[in-house]
């Protein structure tokens, strides 16, 4: 089964059809970046309506078994995720409420310090806050995967240590291969792997550098990452942003926290939306990724693990056993 | 099984113990009167914490089967209810979200006109609004019981007609027996019964008048109500407010909508909290209610129907089959 650990596309029927075209079994979608509780609930309502209108192509999954069931009847399972913990509005009790509403993945911070911890762009990282420790515990209990992709190093290390369950970096690369604040130092990735976590390797241009050149260079990035953390802890996290426009990018980068231009993983010299990767314009290229891994020398079992098996193992360990599906 | 269709007590362990003392199988509790979405979610969090801390006595039920299971292991099932639709904040999609969070009963309005319809105290009742029609449909779909207790007559009649499922008046009496704006005209009660609904007869002093004198006069009220609507459509809705203090009463009556004194079902001449009924100080008196019904001439099957069976039939028809319990 093919699994994409993180996408931030503006989904519609056409993008769902691309998921089917790539034979995707499961994708984590981004329901919000900076949204507060009410805005996040409004996003969940919109997601439910969108999924109902396209129930022949996709369904929301709330357990690993549901992912497999949805896949078995020829559809793509969606895991509902947030790239921030702002939906909590500082309430520990809301972890459980949003889990009941179907949310299964949450990044502790987006691009700035919040009440849970520091982001990868903050000059000072004081670590996982006291509230953050509570949030990690509650996410463990509720079956919500902890995502550290945009999270600062110290906060991430403390979250990995504090978590009773494996955690994820759904979309980032090793900083030792592509130096960038969004990428992860080796010691963090080793701690993640020791805990049983998974890193979703991304071909997103701003954080994959020269490895973004082709499916084969991307396969090389995967191979070197597997050398660092073990092939059992590497997955795909495309960070694909189909139909994302500049206004979306501005919202991601600036939210409401600043009036000044921010560039996220880009820079003043490179401020715009990155052009699509010619070898990965959309998820229909997932089979080509698997082929590139095979060309690079991955055996059949390892290709299957990287392309989806590792994520599925992670979901079986982290997501609840009990469905909260309608 | 004994069922109380509506209480507004400030529950704590002592009040839960009273439920067990009365052998209550199920009680609908009041999670809010005027609260908006966030405040209502905060109330649900507080309810979850309270129930977890008293899990030996009570549990939240989300289906009729769960009520019976909780009852079977010697605890009291709680249905989470709101006495207003303010938790929706005008969003149709939130009916489903709050149903997923376990809410099973909602009154369309409390004591003033809102975006759904008019209350029983409003001088003009323009009927169920366009949004109100959507809300009733969505509540039908989500398995949330429609409660019309404080709702205006025209709005109620239109809700009964529009609803695809039976609806409830969880706590009120026939106005032909006790004239009061909070009580219900015969034509409304007949429409309710024709739809398969249930009226919870209340001993609350302000709306039961002379029938509040004793368990036997209350039984007389039940008998006359059964004559009007049929014994299959009468239940108990005590409206009990254990540990409710004057500040709570002010919140119920004035909310945030007025700075002037309001008296709810009371009056300027009778503004205070009503003293407890000597024959019904708390739910430990439920067995005494059953005995009074038997003295009044109700047969065993009818006593069982009024004391809980009718509510259970209603819950089996209206609540979802699928649990949303943790």
TrEMBL record, chains A, B:
InterPro entries (UniProt xref): Metal_Hydrolase (IPR032466), Pept_M19 (IPR008257)
Molecular-function annotations in GO: metallodipeptidase activity
Pfam families per the UniProt record, alphabetical: Peptidase_M19
SUPFAM superfamilies: Metallo-dependent hydrolases
Source species, domain of life: Bacteria
A single BP term in Gene Ontology: proteolysis
UniProt name for this protein: Peptidase M19
